[in-house]
Amino acid sequence: MKLSMAESIMSEVVIPNLSITPIFEGVSETWMLATAALAMLISLLEAWLATLIVYGRLDALKKVIVAPHNLIRSHVDYTIMTALLGFTYLVVVWLGIELPKWVIVLLCVGVLYNPFGFLVKAFKPTAGQAETVLGRIAVCAGFLPTTIGFGYVMFAVLVRVI
Using CA atoms, how far apart are residues 118 and 125, in angstroms rounded to an integer? Predict the structure, then answer.
């Protein structure tokens, strides 16, 4: 059987399955579906809250959620993350790609964490405005789980299909 160029390269690269703790024992691809479902439920709740603020003109909510545009950003971001993680799950299953458990955990954590910043800013608009270099690095580091997780999966997809 002749290997494609990408498969040949990947056969030389060793990417360890870092199941370093028992915490990862129960992790499976279905975690991605459960996380996507949770992200969608969060998005739906945020949509209703935004609707009640903008169209229902509920002053009590406006006092708590002082920046509804950030709530809408979070809603959109959670919806996008739902679609991305759902697509990723389907592609992984369709192509028969076995993901390391640490990648699944990174994906699930990142999908829930990334939009969370907008949610926090809906309540406190000044949140996340780091004044120091170290603070800005810390904020940017929050994007690493999704970048590493989706990056790993999409690289594996390219290797599989090329």
Answer: 9
| Closest alpha carbon to 150 in 113, 110, 118 | 110
Residue 133: partners with Cβ closer than 8 Å, 6 or more residues away: none
- Terminal alpha carbon distance of the chain: 15
Spatial contact of 123 and 65, defined as CB atoms under 8 Å apart: yes
- Cα→Cα distances 37→21, 26, 111, 145, Å: 26, 18, 11, 19
Q: Give this prediction's pTM.
A: 0.81
Q: Please say whether the beta carbons of 107 and 145 come within 8 A.
A: yes
Residue 35 CB neighbours (<10 A): 23
DSSP code for 141? H
State which of 16-20, 41-45, 51-55 shows the largest mean pLDDT. Answer: 41-45
Each residue of 126-161: pLDDT tens digit?
887 777 887 778 778 888 999 999 999 999 999 999
For residues 152 and 102, the answer to whether their CB atoms sit within 8 Å is: no
119 token code pair: 């949610």
Q: Which residue has the higher pLDDT, 81 or 137?
A: 81
Q: SS3 for 27? A: coil
